[in-house]
Each structure stands twice: as structure tokens, then as C-alpha cells.
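Structure ticket #2291
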Amino acid sequence: MARQRSRGGRSPVVVDVDGGTAELRPDPDRPRAWMLLLDGAPQSHVDLDDPAHLAFEYQRRLGHVADLVAPAGRPVQVLHLGGGALTLPRYIAATRPRSVQQAVEIDGRLTALIRAELPLPERARIRVRHGDARAVLARMPDDWADLIIGDVFHVARTPAHLTTTEFLGDVRRVLRRGGVYAANLADGPPLAYLRAQTATAAAVFPELCVVAAPAVWRGRRFGNAVLLGSAVPLPVGELTRRAATDPQPGRVEHGRALRDFAAGARPVTDATATESPAPPPGVFT
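Resolution: structure written out below.
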């Protein structure tokens, strides 16, 4: 484990993990906040003093979903596919005390680093499970989760087996009747991957919406989009309001506009799946 002294007095931590090189970089503006990077790509941001602070655009979008999945403050059951620095589990533990959460992370050495350097709150009911996200999902009981968050990246790309109708069928099985699936996706022009993922989700969930920055929707840059699926109507109005007032405003598409966006795209199956597109050079610099 390597440390280099920063100007603020805290040392970045650089460690080889199963999936590459992890770096915990101190946030110069927050005394106990850190950013996690994997092979140079920013993954998560955690403020140990304020776990309700969400620094990244996509994390704020997912935080809105967590806020809206049930009445404010009510405990929920959440399955996180992808652990990273456990930012969203910390957020939900802070905003919805007594929530029961499971986080699945395939990189055991990364989990060990996070536990050592960014320990979880003592009373948080967060269980971290080591393994492949789809394999652990397959072992989950029916009707368990109020919310399932999909945020799995390997070398900045989502693995192919987590992009299919078969995978989403298992997600729906584990969700409760009013539960919500929220996936962090990454794409750029011409948005073929986002169109295909929208069509894939539409084959499984009757209710959908997608939130992304206007520049991403217009195909002007590579970026994140958060896709929501459910068996029941989604809180589109309130999500639209919250996304529009974010520091980096987002636009929510749903209904006919979203169907038109995905028109012509075919649902992805296990037989046709590929991993998500690679970020273009320089996107993280």
C-alpha cells in the first residue's frame, strides 16, 4: 500500500486490487472526504463526516431515486449490485436509518481497502457480499428488495452479462411489487447502447424513465444516464423536478418520448450481449 503526501496533509492511498489499481485521493475541500479511482477512472466519492453528501452527478440521481422509493425516513431493503466505496449504502443508512442493505462486490481486495480506509458507520445495517453480481442476484429470495441499484463497471465498462433481458428478469423477481430498479449506464454518441438498454428494460418492466444531462441526450458528450424500471408508475414528476435543480441539471424522458428514443433498438439477450462502450480517451482528464 503506497501513500504520497498531499498538500493538504493527507496522503493518497494507491493499492493494487483484483480489478487493477485503486487510488483513494483526498478531497481538498472536505477534511474527511475521499475520491476512489480505479485505473485512473473516478468511481466514487465518500465524505465520512457527511455520508448524505453526494458529489458525483450520477450518485445524486441515484440518491433521488432512493429518496423517492418510499416515504421519507422509512427503512427499506436495498440490493446494490456493485459496491465500490459503498457511497449509496452509506447515503441510505444516513437518510433511512434501520434500512437493511446488501452490497455485492466482486473485488475482494477493493472491499478490504474500503473497510480499512473508509470504515462503514457502526450501526449501519450493510452487508457486503463478495461475488459476481448476477450470481449473487440469482441466490436472492423472491420479493426481497424495495430498490435494486445496478452500478457495476470493470475497467470503466459494464460487463455484458449484466445488460440482458435474462438478467433483468431476475432483477424483477427479487423486487417487491412496488420496487424500483435503478441502473447507472454510461454511453456517448450515437447512444446506441443507451437505446438498446432502454429497449431491454422495456421488455421486462412496464414502467420506465431515464435521466441524463441534456448534453448526453443530444449526443454531444460521453456521460452517465440513470435508467429506472418498475412494475408500478414511477415518481416521474418529482424526479424531473429534482434532476432539473441539480448542480449539473438532468432531463427525464419517459412515456412516448422514451419509446420514440428507443424505437428500432432490439432488446439485448444473453446470446447477443456485449459490454458497454469504452469511454473515449481523455474523458476523465
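Closing remark: Residues 164 and 271 are 9 Å apart (CA to CA).
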